[in-house]
Amino acid sequence: MNVACNIKEVRAEIPAGVELVAVSKFHPAEAVMAAYEAGQRCFGESRVQELLEKEKELPQDIRWHFIGHLQTNKVKQLIGKTSLIESVDSERLLRLIDKESEKAGVVTNVLMQVHVAKEETKFGFYPEELLQFFTDKKFETLTNTHICGIMGMASNTDDLIRVREDFKNIAAVFNRIANDSTLGLRGFDRLSMGMSGDWQIAVEEGANIVRIGTRIFGERQY
Question: How many CB atoms lie within 10 A of CB 136?
Fold first, then answer.
C-alpha cells in the first residue's frame, strides 16, 4: 500500500476548493506520516484516545478533524486538540463543547451533523430539528464555539440514486441555513459529505469537504 502515491492520486481528482480529510482512524502513525510527507495536513479520527495519541506523536501543524460519534464524557479531553469537530449530533453535546471550550479559553470549530440516511444507527439532527435550532437562533448563546457548517452521511447502500438523494437533502438543509440572511451567521460555509465510495457524487451536490480513508490507507487495520 503506497500511501504517498494514493494521496497524490486522490488529490489530483478532487476539484479546487474542496478540502480532503484523510481518514486515518484505525491506521498507524507511520501511515499518517507517509501521507503527511506527501503534503497532506488534514486528517480525520473517530476515537478520542486514538486522536490524542497520534496528536502527541505527529507533527504539530496537522489539522485534526474529529469525525466519529463524540461521547459527552470524552469532550473535555478533546477540547483544544482539533481544528474541527465534524460530528455534533445533539444540542446537549454542543452546549458541553461550548462550556469546556470556555473553561479552556479556546474557541472550538464545529459542524452540525444532520441525519438523512435510512439506517437508524447513524447519529445526527433530523433536518427539521436542525432548521428549528437555527430559526430559534439558539446558536446565539454560544460563547466559545463557532458553527462552521454541516456534516452528513448518505445511506450505506449501492443504490447511487438513493445516495445522491441523501446528499441533495443534506445540501438543501445547509443552503437554507447558509442563505437565510435573518440569522446573521458568519463563516457558515462548510459542507462535509462524501467518503471513498461516493465522494464524487457528494461534490456534485455541493460538498466542499470530503472524508476519504480506504482509497488512501487501504482497508482498516483493527
Answer: 9
What is the 3-state composition of the chain as percent helix, strand, coil, each rounded to the nearest 5?
Answer: 45, 20, 40
For 26-66, write each residue's pLDDT tens digit: 999 999 999 999 999 999 999 999 999 999 999 999 999 99
Pick the CATH number of 3-217 from 3.40.190.10, 3.10.450.50, 3.40.630.30, 3.20.20.10: 3.20.20.10
Can you give 156-209 as a three-state secondary structure string? Answer: CCCCHHHHHHHHHHHHHHHHHHHCCHHHCCCCCCEEECCCCCCHHHHHHCCCCE
In contact, 62 and 83? CB cutoff 8 Å:
no
**Alpha-carbon distance 52 to 190, whole Å?**
24
